[in-house]
């Protein structure tokens, strides 16, 4: 690849963008109390919140994968008129403020909600302020991110591959399972990791819909919010740990071994 010279204005703008993103992260790292870092992260309240976030976000991410990938395939194959209506609805949570997202979930699943009222009347159970609410919030927030990336990946599958499968009389299910999924695995893995990171970092919608009950709904980010008033050192320590996880995801995605495993080969056996 030939390296082209970058004009001074573009370079200045690029460096400015780097500083805008990097300086707050650097400032947070500087504020981390390294002498008590292990003690802060290893406190009982911190560990409970971290464990809660990891297993609830993991379940949410798996559900996003199970539901989102077929949805992305359906959108990529559906009639343009239908997709123009459905796609904005599916992707809306990406742009919704967290409080609006939380209020929407309450409107659907609270005791007086459209669906929650029916559930409560017949079972006596309500979802808000439970760990299930944390999982459902993650599903609501994470699915659009996964669908957006995976649908784009499906669009980039070479048409000749799909045409060849159709000529060989592959059914729609076979086309999805045996052609689309293998060809799109790189994008699917990327989408899954990004969706999981987004779910892990969710705060506002979770606070409104699930509350902040220690051990059941007080997630990692909510714990940071509470510690900021009580013990700022712990808040900075927990925040740094979350930054490490976020950066690790992108480093993992760019690792040569991962790139090789998730790349596909063209008919000549070359990696693409």
From TrEMBL:
Name of the protein described by the UniProt record: Unannotated protein
InterPro entries assigned to the protein according to its UniProt record, in alphabetical order: MetI-like, MetI-like_sf, Sulph_transpt2
UniProt keyword Metal-binding, yes or no: no
PANTHER family assigned: SULFATE TRANSPORT SYSTEM PERMEASE PROTEIN, SULFATE TRANSPORT SYSTEM PERMEASE PROTEIN CYST
An example Gene Ontology molecular-function term: ABC-type sulfate transporter activity
An example Gene Ontology CC term for this record: plasma membrane
Transmembrane stretches, start-end: 12-34, 54-76, 88-109, 129-150, 187-210, 235-253
Its membrane topology: Multi-pass membrane protein
Main location: membrane
Record's subcellular location: Membrane
One Pfam family matching this protein: BPD_transp_1
Alphabetized UniProt keyword annotations: Membrane, Sulfate transport, Transmembrane, Transmembrane helix, Transport
Database matches in SUPFAM superfamilies: MetI-like
CDD domains named among the record's database cross-references: TM_PBP2
Occurrences of domain ABC transmembrane type-1 (ranges): 50-253
